[in-house]
Amino acid sequence: MKMMSGETMGESKKKISCRRLGGYLRQQKGRLYIIRRCVVMLVCWHD
């Protein structure tokens, strides 16, 4: 079994955290889009 160097380990952790962050940001962006659409519909709704 090969030992990974510290630099390689750091790079893989960085990639994983970037993916997690990207997924989190994408999810938040989607939520904000939905909330914004709902607010616009409520404001513009005429009965």
From TrEMBL:
The keyword Transmembrane helix is annotated on this UniProt entry: yes
Keyword Transmembrane found: yes
Keywords, comma-separated and alphabetical: Cell membrane, Developmental protein, Membrane, Transmembrane, Transmembrane helix
GO BP, one annotated term: negative regulation of cell population proliferation
Membrane topology annotation: Single-pass membrane protein
Location in the cell: Cell membrane
GO cellular component, one term: plasma membrane
Pfam families in alphabetical order: DVL
PANTHER family tied to this protein: OS01G0525701 PROTEIN, SMALL POLYPEPTIDE DEVIL 1-RELATED
Similarity comment: Belongs to the DVL/RTFL small polypeptides family.
Protein name: DVL family protein
Protein's organism: Populus trichocarpa
